[in-house]
Amino acid sequence: MYAIISDIHSNIEALSVVMADIDSLGIEDIYCLGDVVGYGPDPTVCVDIIMDRCTVTLKGNHDEALVHGAYAFNLRAQKAIEWTRDQLKPGFFSGTTVRRRWEFLTKLPLRHEVDGNLLIHGSPRDPTNEYILATEIGFGPTEKFVEIFEGFEKMLFVGHTHMPCIITDRYETKTSADLGDTYSYPDLADQKVIVNVGSVGQPRDHDTRASYVVVDGNTITWRRLEYDFQKTASKIEAVPLLDNALAARLKEGI
Hints:
Blueprint: E1 2-5, H1 12-24, E2 30-32, H2 43-53, E3 56-57, H3 61-68, H4 75-88, H5 96-106, E4 111-114, E5 117-120, H6 143-150, E6 155-158, E7 165-168, E8 173-175, H7 176-179, E9 182-185, E10 193-196, E11 210-216, E12 219-225, H8 229-237, H9 244-252
Parallel strand pairs: 1-2, 2-3, 5-6, 6-10
Antiparallel strand pairs: 1-11, 4-5, 7-8, 7-10, 9-12, 11-12
Helix pairs in contact: 3-4, 8-9
């Protein structure tokens, strides 16, 4: 049994609640699908916790932009990454801890396999940037989804959209409206599935609660947890370079 988290986005209030919940379940192996940073007010402590607690951490598009530049980002996200870079990038007189933290962020892998399942931030076709959305399924397979399902053998775990969902190779979907507070999806041995674990630090499914999944064999369980988003929002509003709209998103879960 292991936990998969994603899209922390420098939100220590949400991350702390999620880690406490994982501990209460007795789970030791935690996999992070990326976007540790970006948007939120506490990048340093979030990176430190992820470094300490996660078995493997993958590269998300915000982690990539932190190191290489946010050229394709909107202005709000770009300014947040620039501020985050100022908090994390070592200077000439920086000590070992700061340098070790930055080195960790520069060397994040793009994908990882565990128990025959593929873990990735975006999609097998574009590990950091492509979105996989349940709303794209429509009435059946598209070239995009045929290629995605060909890119893994059993289960594909992703983040990036910040919206929990499951998509099967029979083109059946369930979104957070179907998943409920704590939803288990059992008996997945006979089909390929795409599982979006949701976001720890910036949910976008009109639910303010943090989201992550627990994997136990062929059973996937989504966990939704209340956290003090008002506190996180207030900290965002106190940083001039972080747009207040980023605080508003947390209050509405969008």
